[in-house]
Amino acid sequence: MKALVTGGTGFIGSHLVEALLQRGVQVRCLLRKTSDLKWLKGLPIEIAFGDCSDKSSLKEAVNGVEQVFHLAGVTKAVYEKTYFEVNTFGTENLVHACIESNLHIQKFIYLSSQAAAGPCRSEDKKRESDQCDPISTYGRSKRMGEELSLTHAQEIPLLILRPCAVYGPREKDIYTFFKLLAKRIKPCLSGVERHISLCYVDDIVQAMLLAAQSQQSSGEIFSLSDGQDYRLEEIGDIFAQAMRVNAYCIRVPEWMIIGMASFSEYLAKFSKKPSLLNKGKIEEILQRNWVCDITKAKTALGFEPHIPLEQGAKLTFEWYKKENWL
Fold first, then answer.
1. Which tens digit of pLDDT belongs to each residue from 185-232?
2. What is the DSSP letter of 55?
3. Handedness of CA 96, 61, 214, 171 (dihedral sign)
4. Which of 29, 106, 164, 301 could form a Cys-Cys staple with 225, CB 3.0–4.6 A?
5. Which of 178, 326, 199 is nearest to 242 (CA)?
6. Helix ranges restricted to H, 109-231
7. Can you tell me the distance from the alpha carbon of 150 to that of 219, in angstroms, rounded to the nearest whole number?
8. Which tens digits make up the pLDDT trace of 274-302?
9. Distance between terminal CA atoms of the chain?
């Protein structure tokens, strides 16, 4: 079995590459020549140089593989058009390349995002059958990538996975929260209580491997999380407990965090580097309910998350310490 992985140098992608190799799968990674290979160093992988935004570079990458795991994408960008160039049309290019150059693909797994579905507008959990309502540019670009992919579901065996917020070793966004906790600062948003879903990276990788082996109909979508409902403040407490620190809750009003995001976006235009905070990300953070229902993934794929937040937080913190990130 040979698999193509896009986004293999990233947080989730590098964990997936390792898991595939452990299972005896031959792995080919689609990489740009400027890609940082630190997480793939020393691994017995085949490299195909190319870019999902350049359709002509994808023909050789997809040739001869039985599975495609499409993880490449951007979660932060200086300009809004970049989200669509990469997340939307990059996905479409890869699907087209598979259809045109490899008729023997057994499974195309597209790792989308809960942001494509949007938040739950009720007190219930968001289901795959609910109407999609993405509220950020990132979410809209991922949803458009889904829609364009689904138009080819009769031509290629395609499954879409929508993970919630994912954490674990090598992750850099939630890592910022760990850094604040290390300084005994626990930022807490003022206003209404907010709930989200989380999932440890190994469980997301497990779901992708299950999806690749499943016999589910092409075009199905599956939400992924650890199955729990967390209050934002509760997450901070669990992380702090894993770090064995007593952090002080600092209330941050909504207007302040919105202002910080606007200022960060302004500076990003000059530095040409995406900011951690942007208006789209803040719009997502301010929503009351980002909890998803994973019943479909459990029933249809046999997905069973194994890492509870308390254990995952400890594993993540220990890795950050080992790598001198904290």
1. 998 888 888 999 999 999 999 999 999 999 999 999 999 999 999 999
2. G
3. negative
4. 164
5. 178
6. 114-117, 137-150, 174-182, 201-213
7. 6
8. 877 788 888 888 899 999 999 999 999 99
9. 39
